[in-house]
Amino acid sequence: MKITIGENIRRLRRDRDITQEQLAEAMNVSTAAVSKWERCESLPDITLLFPLAHYFEVSIDELMGYDAERINAQIEEILGAFSKQHLSGTSAGEEEAKRIITEAFSKYPNDCRVMSRYMWFIAGDMADNDPEVLLSHKEEFLGICEKILSGCSDEGIRLGAWNMRAKILHAEGNTDEALEIYRSKFASWYQTCEQKSEQLFAKNTDEYYFWVRRNMYELFSFAADKLGRAVFFDKSLTNAEKTEKALLYGELMLEAYEKTDDGAFLVIAQSFLRRIENDLCYRGGTAKDIASVMELNLRALALLDKCRKDGGAIYDAVYAGNPFWNGVKGNLAGRFISSRKSAKEGRLAELLKDADYLGTLEKV
Prior knowledge:
- By secondary structure, this protein is mostly helical.
- It folds into three domains: 5-64, lambda repressor-like DNA-binding domains (434 Repressor (Amino-terminal Domain)), CATH 1.10.260.40; 109-186, no CATH class; 194-363, no CATH class.
- It contains 21 helices and no strands.
- Helix 15 (239-260) packs parallel to helix 17 (287-306).
- The longest helix has 27 residues, at 206-232.
- The protein is elongated.
């Protein structure tokens, strides 16, 4: 069903809490004229289309006949293309991602999904944000946050807006206020959706057992990533010592799996080793160190490929929601190797010139 321009004007005006009198004054027409537009008794003069679109911050197409289903499909397609480029790992992909999301923000400036993706892209994603970037875009970001919090019903996007507010407060030196936002707006460990999903089921049911294991795997993966960060960012260790420690931990985890046949130890090993490998790769590790950790990581992935007797709980918890593994139902190690061999630029491409690194990819 196509919505008329009059219905659109009424919707846009009400969404922004603007009176007919205010709109009439802005367009230099009578209040009666605006009323007739909204009742579909007359149409705005063609010369007013651009001023109206600019006033409401929408495209001419959206103003003329807002087809919610069609527009939504367009936005989803645009965001899909943006994510593909953003996750490509190449500078060309990053430039294309920037072009896509900037154009989307210009065309759909009031769509919460677009606003959020644009804001976090410009901010450098959700971790390791540069305070100077946050502060240089402070007014723009806070304006986006205000729009999201006043008009968006998607709780995930709303929490992202609160997160940005906290990050800006921290960048300004108001860390206590930032932490208070997290304490007041974000759930504790025991109030997460995973914990509540688990509690839906009686403890003697198969469903409960599945969710207990699923949540355990996800928490282990999360905790192992933190362990990797704790090891790597230990300033008392050299990169060589970090590598040695990572290999020791990894071997112990794989040995625990061999003795217990419990996939939890594989999840811990893979998440931990992947974190160490990534930080070595981009924070000064040698090709030899990276290759040694990667080899152990690939062993863990190969074992995970065979660890499917748990009814899919490991995959559902750790890999199904990760864009890198999206659609991979088996051969996790093969997917990882393929991604490394196809690197075209940056550190990963440089590593392919190293015999130790390339040899590891070839032999696993």
